[in-house]
Structure formats: structure tokens, C-alpha cells
Write a structure and sequence with these properties.
This protein has 20 helices and 14 strands. The chain is α/β, with parallel strands linked by helices. A six-stranded mixed beta sheet has the order 6-8-9-10-7-11. It has a five-stranded mixed beta sheet with strand order 1-4-3-2-5, with helices on one face. Strands 13-12-14 form a three-stranded antiparallel beta sheet. The termini are far apart. Bound molecules: adenosine-5'-diphosphate and zinc ion. Zinc ion binds next to α15.
């Protein structure tokens, strides 16, 4: 058996590259030597007459034509040369050798000064290029750094399960794996089979990375992390090499945890298209599958991957022996949010009487990352105001900033634009207050934030796990309320409604194609690339439009019946920029009093 077969795959490639390198070196040395020889041998200069005589003599062995230079090699290996610029004269000598069947060799012309400079330049470029390729190759063979992050178990950024809150189920599911990592051999002897490929599925910012890191640290093993998108390489084949390198490192460190963030970047279904980028991705994924199959039961490497799109992963990835355990990491509910806030509030000074449960109640839909960000922004605001502790107003400010984008101060908007914006937002508010199943309106503002000129903020009053048809319809109506007010109050339309319309149509389309909430009945359209008949697509389009126009009519009706309230609201906004829930209520109750009077 050749020795290279005894080596694992990655080392075999190493040997191959080394062999190729030595071979290339050998060729280079030999070429140089030949060159050295031909130039340094003593050459006798002769004239043309002598050359012709020599060509007919028995001593002549071969002829070399090197541009204008003719070189004759004699039987005794000595060389004689002369310059023959005339092509006819050259031909005559060549014919003499030809007739005698003596070997004739043509060499390239001797370069001029410029040509030789170009040649040298080219040679240097070639060397540089070879150097670069070699360096890339070296880097890809394991010499490179910055490929992945390595954290020691006892590193300074050590996190424990106590730092991850609101995801108790996921923690329980990982307990067995930690047991395995603590002592892989004992675990094996007892006949246990811990999952070594775990898929954490959930929206961004829910703590998937944190969980994987904490699992490694709880087990006291190194944490190797890498982002799925880093496998998308400029050079074909390097992604696969990266995977190989990652697992070589993991085997060295074992027991350890390998974490692949956003694995969908490399784990998409194979064979989607024939372009070279997707072929390269397929190759990278194949390598990952090979590495995962190569785990021996005892080698103590656990691979944890995270994704928000488990549905687009290649099915081979989730087969037994690979990522065969799926753990859902979802947005936390109100209790979970309070626990997460607890973790992040540890290093903050909070105002007396401010309950974290109050913040938790006001932040449905916030991820762990959002909550961490919220407390951080609140702390910054408190510092800026020289407050002794973080208070409610700082938390409110931070929440507005996260939900609506930062306020943009110090740039002038003319009154006409402010008025138009106020009417548009008032339309959202009017519809939002009228519909029964939507999220309560919480705040409205015509201070420009981010790219928006105004914002109406509605917050779910509770965690919504189920979205009913009425809720979705109310949402669409509310989104269209801005446009309705433009049309009815101002008799115009603005481009500012484009985002509202986009979101409304998106909801309507999902109602038709995913939730089966249209006359077309339970329908699932699946992915855009799936084949569908044009008739079906036309009917889907029609059903979507029907939902939109019904809700548009509804929004216009509501706006039309609330003109007085809307005028009050607009006046309030023009005066104060921002109105909160209480002030909004005042506008609407005033109207009722006026009516009663
Ligand atoms: P993911 O990997 O799911 O996108 P991360 O683990 O990167 O999310 O979370 C980002 C940050 O958000 C964390 O570093 C942490 O500060 C905070 N965070 C997210 N989820 C939680 C949680 N469940 N408990 C505590 N902090 C969390
Ligand atoms: Zn709007």
C-alpha cells in the first residue's frame, strides 16, 4: 500500500501538493541548468565561408538556427557559430544539413533590449503570480488564519447557561450533549448515543449563537465558530478546503463544539442550477457531508448549526448521523422576555420602582438581541441626560428609537410637507382606532425618523401566536389608511404611501397563497420556482387584488366618517410633532362631546 493511502484525506492532499511543488522545483532547476550550459560552453566564432565548408564536412553533427545565429555542433560536441542575416544564405546552410539528414533545431530569435525587458517583466509577473497562487494554496491548506474563531473554554468572554434566558426547552435538549462532551469515552461505554449534529432553528437574535457558546463553555471544551457565508469563496474549491480545514482543527481540539452560523448559506439544496457558483457550493456541501459521516463515535466533536430557514436546507443534511436533532429557538413570550431583561439589567442601575415586567409587557415580538439593545440604548439615554438611574422615559425613548428609527433633528421641512404627513398619519390612526382586531395605536409622530417622514406606531397588546383573518384584514386596512386620508382630505396622493402599499399587498398575497383565506380555498403556492399554470397565477393575482380593494374601500369609509377627529389630530401633530396614546384619545373623545353637545 503506498504510504499516502495511509493518511487521512486532508493530509493526502497536502502530500500531493508537496509532491507537485518538488516536481516543479526540479523542472525549474533542470531548465536553468540547460540554459547555463548552452551559454557558457566555449563557442568558436567562424565566418560564412567556414560555416559552409563545415556544413559539408564529416565533422558536422547538427545545426541550430537561433534567429540570425547559426550554430553547428560537431561530432566532438564542440560548437561553432556565425551570424547569417540573409535568409537565402541561411536557407542554403539549412538545405546542406537537410540533404545529409542531420538534425536541425530552431530556436527562438535572440531578443532585443526591449523584447528582453518585456520578457523579464513577464517572468517576474509569472513569478509573482505563482507566488500568489502558492500563498493562496498555502493559506487554504491550513496556513491561513482568520478562517474561524476559536474560543477557549475558560476564556474571558465565557458565557454560561445562566446568561441565556427564556429558552429552557433548548437548554434541556442540549443537556445530553454537554454530558457527552464532558467525557465522550465514558458516554460511549455506557452505550449512550448523543446527537452530534444539532440544528438550532429560529429567527435572528433569539440567542442561538449564545446557546451554542454556552453549551461549549458549560462542558468546558473549546468553541470553534464559523459563519456559513464565509464558505462562499472567490476561488472554486476553496470552500470545500475550508470545510476540511475546519474539521481537521476540530479533530485536533476534540472534544469541542463546532458552530456554523447561518448554515443555509452553504446548505441549500444541491443541483439547483448549473452555474459555477452553485456547483462550487454543492462541492462545499458535499465536503461537509463527508466530514460529518467521518465522525467516529468517540472523537467528541459536536457540530451545532443555526438557521432561520430549515425548509431550504438540502435533505441530505438532516439525515440520521448528520444534523439529526432539530431544536426550535423561538421568540420569547412575556415571561421569557422578563428573564432576558433580567440577564441584561444586571450591570445597569434602574430607577426605583421600574419593573422589568413592565418593559417585558411593552415589547411583544422583541428578540433577545432587541431587548439587549433596548436596555443599552436606555442606558445611553440616561447617561446623556445625566440621570442617576435608568428610568421609564429612557426606556420609552429607546423603544421608539428601535421601533421607529432614530429621530432626525435639525433639518427643515416646509409646513406644507408637515401638513401632508400629518394627514397621512392621522389616516392610519383613525383606521387603527376603528378596527376591532388590530394592534392598539400607541403613538403617532411626524418627526422624520430614518427614511420615513412620519410614523404611526401600534403595539400588540399581547403576544400573538395565532393570526386570524380579521386581524390580517384590519392590518391591511390600517396600512391603507394613510393613502385613504390623502385622497379624501387632500384630494391627492403621495409616493410616501408606497411602503404601506407594499406591506399591505404582501399580507394579502400570503392570505391567498399560504393561509387559504380567499375564495380560491386552501391553496399553497409553494416556491416561486415551482411550476404553476398561468390561469392559477392570474386567479391568485385577482384574489389578492380583491382583498386589497375591499380593505381600501373600508379604510376610505372610516376616514370619511372621522373627518373632525382627523382634523383635531392633524392640528395636534402640527403643534407638537408627536402624540401619545392618551393625547390621541383626547382628540377622539372631544369629537364625541362635540356631537353630544
Ligand atoms: P442568534 O444567533 O440567534 O442570531 P445571538 O445569540 O447572536 O442570536 O444573540 C445576539 C445577542 O442578543 C446575544 O449576544 C445576547 O446579548 C442577546 N440575546 C439573544 N437571545 C438571548 C437570550 N435568550 N438570553 C439572553 N440574551 C440574549
Ligand atoms: Zn403610511
Amino acid at each position: 500500500m503506498p504510504f499516502s493511502r495511509l493518511l487521512p484525506r486532508s493530509q493526502k492532499t497536502g502530500v500531493m501538493v508537496a509532491t507537485a511543488f518538488v516536481f516543479a522545483l526540479l523542472v525549474a532547476v533542470l531548465t536553468l541548468q540547460t540554459y547555463y550550459h548552452t551559454t557558457k560552453t566555449v563557442v568558436e566564432e567562424i565566418n560564412f565561408t567556414q560555416l559552409r565548408v563545415l556544413s559539408e564536412a564529416a565533422a558536422a553533427a547538427s545545426l541550430t538556427v537561433d534567429g540570425e545565429m547559426l550554430i553547428v555542433k560537431k561530432q566532438d560536441n564542440s560548437l561553432s557559430q556565425t551570424i547569417v542575416p540573409n535568409a537565402v544564405a541561411q536557407q542554403e546552410i539549412i538545405n546542406l544539413f537537410g540533404k545529409r539528414n542531420l538534425p536541425i533545431e530552431f530556436r527562438s530569435e535572440k531578443p532585443g533590449a526591449f523584447a528582453s525587458a518585456v520578457n523579464w517583466g513577464f517572468a517576474i509577473l509569472m513569478l509573482a503570480f505563482i507566488g500568489l497562487v502558492g500563498w493562496r494554496l498555502y493559506a487554504s491548506m491550513g496556513g491561513g488564519s482568520g478562517d474561524f474563531n476559536l474560543e477557549d473554554a475558560r476564556g474571558s468572554q465565557s458565557v454560561t447557561f445562566a446568561d441565556v434566558a427564556g429558552v429552557d426547552e433548548a437548554k434541556n435538549e442540549l443537556a445530553e450533549t454537554i454530558e457527552f462532551l464532558r467525557d465522550p469515552e465514558r458516554f460511549g461505554r455506557l452505550g449512550g448515543r448523543a446527537p452530534r449534529g444539532i440544528l438550532l432553528c429560529g429567527p435572528p437574535g433569539t440567542g442561538k449563537t449564545l446557546l451554542a457558546r454556552a453549551a461549549a463553555h458549560e462542558a468546558g471544551v473549546p468553541f470553534l465558530s464559523v459563519s456559513g457565508s464565509s464558505f462562499q469563496e472567490k476561488f472554486a474549491g476553496l470552500g470545500a478546503a475550508r470545510v476540511r480545514r475546519l474539521f481537521t482543527k476540530a479533530r485536533q481540539l476534540s472534544p469541542c463544539v463546532v458552530f456554523i452560523d447561518e448554515i443555509d448559506a452553504l446548505g441549500r439544496r444541491r443541483g439547483r442550477s448549473s452555474d459555477s457558483a452553485s456547483a462550487d457550493q454543492d462541492q462545499t456541501l458535499n465536503q461537509l457531508l463527508i466530514e460529518m459521516d467521518g465522525f467516529a463515535q468517540l472523537n467528541g466533536v459536536v457540530v451545532i448549526a443555526s438557521t432561520n430557514r430549515p425548509d431550504i436546507l438540502d435533505q441530505a443534511l438532516t439525515r440520521p448521523g448528520r444534523f439529526d436533532r432539530e431544536i426550535a429557538v423561538n421568540l420569547a413570550d412575556v415571561r421569557g422576555r422578563e428573564q432576558i431583561l433580567n440577564v441584561h439589567a444586571r450591570k445597569l442601575k434602574l430607577e426605583e420602582g421600574m419593573e422589568l415586567s413592565w418593559i417585558a409587557r411593552g415589547t411583544p415580538g422583541f428578540s433577545g438581541a432587541d431587548l439587549a439593545n433596548l436596555l443599552n440604548e436606555a442606558a445611553i439615554a440616561a447617561t446623556r441626560h445625566d440621570a442617576a438611574a435608568v428610568g421609564r422615559e429612557h426606556v420609552e425613548y429607546a423603544r421608539d428609537k428601535i421601533l421607529m428609527g432614530a429621530e432626525r433633528h435639525g433639518f427643515m421641512i416646509d409646513e406644507d410637507e408637515r401638513y401632508t404627513t400629518a394627514v397621512h398619519e392621522a389616516g392610519h390612526v383613525a383606521v387603527g382606532l376603528d378596527v376591532k382586531n388590530g394592534d392598539p395605536v400607541h403613538k403617532v409622530s411626524i418627526l422624520p425618523r430614518g427614511r420615513a417622514l412620519g410614523v404611526t406606531q401600534s403595539l400588540p397588546d399581547r403576544d400573538r401566536l395565532m393570526k386570524k383573518r380579521e386581524y390580517l384584514e384590519d392590518q391591511i386596512a390600517m396600512l391603507l389608511g394613510g393613502r385613504a386620508a390623502e385622497q379624501i382630505v387632500l384630494d391627492t396622493m403621495t409616493a410616501g404611501a408606497s411602503n404601506d402599499i407594499e406591506r399591505a399587498v404582501e399580507i394579502a398575497r400570503r392570505m391567498v397563497t399560504e393561509f387559504g383565506m380567499s375564495p380560491l380555498g386552501p391553496l399553497h403556492l409553494g416556491k416561486p420556482e415551482d411550476p404553476h399554470s398561468q390561469t392559477l397565477l392570474d386567479r391568485v393575482e385577482q384574489a389578492t387584488n380583491d382583498i386589497i380593494s375591499a380593505q381600501m374601500t373600508r379604510a376610505r369609509d372610516i376616514v370619511g366618517s372621522r373627518r373632525i377627529e382627523i382634523d383635531l389630530l392633524v392640528a395636534g401633530l402640527m403643534e407638537r410633532d408627536t402624540l401619545d396614546a392618551e393625547e390621541i384619545q383626547i382628540c377622539f373623545n372631544l369629537k364625541q362631546k362635540q356631537r353630544a353637545a
